[in-house]
Amino acid sequence: DAGELVFKNFNLSVPTTEVVDFVANGDFAEAAAIGADGAAGWALWTGEGYVGTNVIADGVLTSTTTTKGSAVWNAQIQYNHATATMTPGEVYRVELDVNASVATTVPFQLKGVTNDKNIDTYVDLVAGDNHVVLYYVAPQSSFRFFIMPGMTEAGTVLVFDNIQVFQPAPSAPLAELAN
What we know:
It is built from no helices and twelve strands. By secondary structure, it is an all-beta fold.
């Protein structure tokens, strides 16, 4: 028989375990100030026309856009881990919940030490609750995860929660498959 078989959002992955210390306060249980650009933990950089508020309170991180920027990187909500040790070349999974006030697209980024190693993933969010699963091949040992709402429309509210990182689990070698 002839025909076409199309898979969408198909992933084949190895077993993983949660890395509990990669994102401190990833459930935002503790209200906290967001630090300046590059600070360890949660940090923020904005510019190039983007105006908004980004706050950790009431068990969530809320990002509200007042004025849309001119590029996605005009708002960078950053998680910078000071001592993380990812294994370059290994596949890591990042999961998070996002409630969006409107359907929108938001880039998430595993940030390189320099901009030439950035790995962007654009995610289409529906209005309402979204569970986002991202896969990244680690380009370096440092862990820097960015949420970039710089191009969201004025009035967009994004509520983030439950950010978790998973690493490849040690496993026994696979047995040879029989025909």
